[in-house]
Amino acid sequence: MLEIKNLHARIENKDILKGVDLRLGAGEVHAIMGPNGSGKSTLSKLLAGHEDYTITEGSVSFLGEDLLELAPELRAAKGIFLGFQYPVEIPGVSNMVFLKAALNAQRKARGEKELDAGDFLAWVKHRVKQMQMNPAMLSRGVNEGFSGGEKKRNEILQMLVLEPKLMVLDETDSGLDIDALKVVADGINLMRSKERSVLLVTHYQRLLDYVKPDFVHVLAGGRIVKSGGPELALELEEKGYGWIQQAA
Ligand code: ADP
Ligand code: MG
Ligand code: MG
């Protein structure tokens, strides 16, 4: 699914990623943990194609293609979804209009037929129901006046509607109460399949109680300094990061 090799990236002349190696197989869930400022968000944004950084070395291949050569819109169309810690508000554009435009733009870019209004409505309603959302949310402006929990739910709805192949969720659990956390976890688990992979950036073991990762990695100082199974997250919760950084 995704192969990152010796990736180096810098922001404003500061080296942030200093040789990241990571392989995600189809169907796998990988959690990335690590101290603040270690480059987790940089890595996430870089995969989605944001432009604040410069790649100085290394490669990223996604489904056998050179990801770094692809424009951000094409990455989304090919199945990369980036979830944000703070989802953006788009006042005046209804959720329904936004979702339809996003889905059809991706279908078009993949050379698929756009969904007509009826098919789209049926599809989005199915997803709204799965997310236990009030359908009235669809006619409100995207995240306009939504509570933190509602924004999260809405973000996961976007993910369910778009059906990405690689879901990159950057601290999507930060600041969530337990109900909202479960919503996020249920959405991720609903999307888990043999064909899809998840890269879950999180500070807390808590989310991993609900979304069981196959692998846990520690990103520190711009490199993956330790990898393990779910038990590594428990160990980190207990001992913090100091012991790894000393050993690395
Ligand atoms: P994390 O998500 O692990 O907390 P980030 O990837 O957000 O870390 O940040 C890594 C480092 O890059 C930090 O030292 C941060 O200050 C720096 N950084 C991030 N974005 C910018 C930017 N736009 N300009 C300058 N420095 C930045
Ligand atoms: Mg941070
Ligand atoms: Mg971050």
UniProtKB/TrEMBL annotation:
<dbReference type="GO" id="GO:0016887">
    <property type="term" value="F:ATP hydrolysis activity"/>
</dbReference>
<comment type="similarity">
    <text>Belongs to the ABC transporter superfamily. Ycf16 family.</text>
</comment>
<dbReference type="InterPro" id="IPR017871">
    <property type="entry name" value="ABC_transporter-like_CS"/>
</dbReference>
<dbReference type="InterPro" id="IPR003439">
    <property type="entry name" value="ABC_transporter-like_ATP-bd"/>
</dbReference>
<keyword id="KW-0547">Nucleotide-binding</keyword>
<dbReference type="Pfam" id="PF00005">
    <property type="entry name" value="ABC_tran"/>
</dbReference>
<dbReference type="GO" id="GO:0005524">
    <property type="term" value="F:ATP binding"/>
</dbReference>
<dbReference type="InterPro" id="IPR003593">
    <property type="entry name" value="AAA+_ATPase"/>
</dbReference>
<dbReference type="InterPro" id="IPR010230">
    <property type="entry name" value="FeS-cluster_ATPase_SufC"/>
</dbReference>
<feature type="domain" description="ABC transporter">
    <location>
        <begin position="2"/>
        <end position="246"/>
    </location>
</feature>
<keyword id="KW-0067">ATP-binding</keyword>
<protein>
    <submittedName>
        <fullName>Fe-S cluster assembly ATPase SufC</fullName>
    </submittedName>
</protein>
<dbReference type="InterPro" id="IPR027417">
    <property type="entry name" value="P-loop_NTPase"/>
</dbReference>
